[in-house]
Amino acid sequence: MPIRAVVYISEASDPPMGDKLGLRAAKLDDLVDDAARFNRDAGVSGVLLFDGERFLQYLEGPSDGLDVAYSRVLGASSHHHILELQRGTVADRRLPFWPMKWLPVEPSELTSTALGDWVGFKVRGDGEAMNATAMDRLLLLVSRSAGLDRSRG
């Protein structure tokens, strides 16, 4: 069964002033926990980056599960100004370990990832290289969060 993926960026509907995590961490945790439960049943995995004001979410899974999960995303009131960056087929799952997880990131990290080359969800292997793809950058942020990147102190 082919694996499909979609990535988008959006703005938080009501980021509270002075709260770096916006939407308050507990509310965001609840939203992501609900998505994780749904995604697990739908066979979808992914990650949600949040810089306090904007989201970037990458989802992957079978076409039917991804379509339903993404329709939930499009109908959510927690964000607006949704801009789809790429949609297509991927050779294999890039984030098979999380039905959904959110990671706090710096605004510059979210921006550089969003503005990267998403075409074909290509991976070159070095998220810090000048020619890094958007997928390279996303995987680097995920690996740092998961404690897999030893180059960052």
What's the SSE blueprint?
Blueprint: E1 3-12, H1 25-42, E2 45-50, E3 54-62, H2 63-75, E4 79-90, E5 102-104, H3 107-114, H4 134-145
Helix pairs in contact: 1-2, 3-4
Features of the shown structure:
153 residues; alpha+beta; five-stranded mixed beta sheet; 4 helices; disordered C terminus
Q: In words, what does this structure look like?
A:
The chain has 153 residues and is an alpha+beta fold. The protein is built from 4 helices and 5 strands, in the order βαββαββαα. It has helices at residues 25-42, 63-75, 107-114, 134-145; strands at residues 3-12, 45-50, 54-62, 79-90, 102-104. A 5-stranded mixed sheet has the order 4-1-3-2-5, with helices on both faces. β2 (45-50) and β3 (54-62) form a beta hairpin. α1 runs antiparallel to α2 and α3 (107-114) packs antiparallel against α4 (134-145). It is globular, with a radius of gyration of 15 Å. The model is unreliable at 148-153 (pLDDT under 50).
